[in-house]
Amino acid sequence: MNTKRKLNYKLIFMILIIIIIVIAGIIGVRKYINYRNSYEYKLKNVGYTETEILDILKLENSTIDELLKKKYNRLNIKFIRQKYFLTKNLENYIQYYNDHKDDKISHIVSMVNVSADNDYYDEDIVKKADISKNELMLVNKFHYLDNTYAPNDIVKVSNQFAYGDNEIKQVVYEKFRSMYHDAKKKGLSLIITSSYRDYNFQKKLWDGYAAQKGEEWADSVSARAGYSEHQTGYTLDIVTYNATMSNFENTDEFKWLQDNAHKYGFILRYPKDKEDITGYSYESWHYRYVGEETAKKIKDLGITFDEYYAYYIEKN
């Protein structure tokens, strides 16, 4: 009996060992299959190092999927590590880099994201502005409005707040008046010099500049018809009494706007040292209404509306 029991125990033990081996094998095969299907394995096969893979795995799955469709390039990881990296622009980043190798990687990303690596008003690049975005619609040298476009709820601006005849969208007018009165409490005066302009008005303006100093200069200081933010009804040119546009930045009013305009939903649309991003010379007087939340984000991030739109709105 003892011999039979020992044999039974040995048999049971052997069966358990076999079961454990089979289970371990199944688990091992599954792990191997899962590994073969993992991003880590696929990225290694493309040529990325373990350190590079750790950075790539922080991206969204859809971004990694797109990246796997592209060949390995040592420059890829430099761009991937940039805050405003967009997978769809990777090839353009590399192409722009090859022509501007002394440029900063972060600046290359910004330039490509806003399409500034292309010629302004290029017919193959420009597209209609998405007016459904309302105060967040982008109008610049690559996004245009039809010659028939006119914003709704345009209201006349009182001469208390503006020089001459001006009109603007109701919401912008309300926010400006609130800003105007708060600035006045600080002993400061704000005045609107220009607001909504229709397509025909902008055409006459740009044509005049071009006739005066040529098209290149006109493009640096003014938008072509259809490409002007003023046509959206969300833009104001603001100065103060006894100041011109050219010296407005030296006033206390300008300094106050720098610290407070975002609280009312306004941003300085064409900042200093951002000319290559915006396509326009620095304009201390040009303010765009984008809403309080977005204005604060843009101020905190220290970027232009063009950059914000490319990454946070038009990202996909």
Write up this protein:
The chain is of the alpha+beta class. It has three domains: 2-37; 40-113, no CATH class; 127-313, Muramoyl-pentapeptide Carboxypeptidase, domain 2. The chain has 14 helices and eight strands. The protein has helices at 2-37, 39-46, 50-56, 61-68, 76-80, 90-99, 105-113, 170-185, 199-213, 215-221, 252-260, 275-278, 292-301, 305-313, and strands at 127-128, 143-144, 154-156, 167-169, 191-194, 235-239, 266-270, 283-289. The strands form three sheets. The protein has a four-stranded antiparallel β-sheet. A two-stranded parallel sheet has the order 1-2. Helix 6 (90-99) packs across helix 7 and helix 9 packs across helix 10 (215-221). It is elongated. It starts with a helix and ends with a helix. The mean pLDDT is 91.
Give the key terms.
single chain, 316 residues, alpha+beta, Muramoyl-pentapeptide Carboxypeptidase, domain 2, four-stranded antiparallel sheet, two-stranded parallel ribbon, 8 strands
User: The biggest beta sheet, please?
Assistant: 4 strands, antiparallel
Helix percentage: 40-55%
- Helix and strand sequence: HHHHHHHEEEEHEHHEHEHEHH
β-sheet strand percentage: 5-15%
Basic shape: elongated
CATH class category label of the largest domain: Alpha Beta
Which radius of gyration do the C-alpha atoms yield?
29 Å
* Poorly predicted runs: none
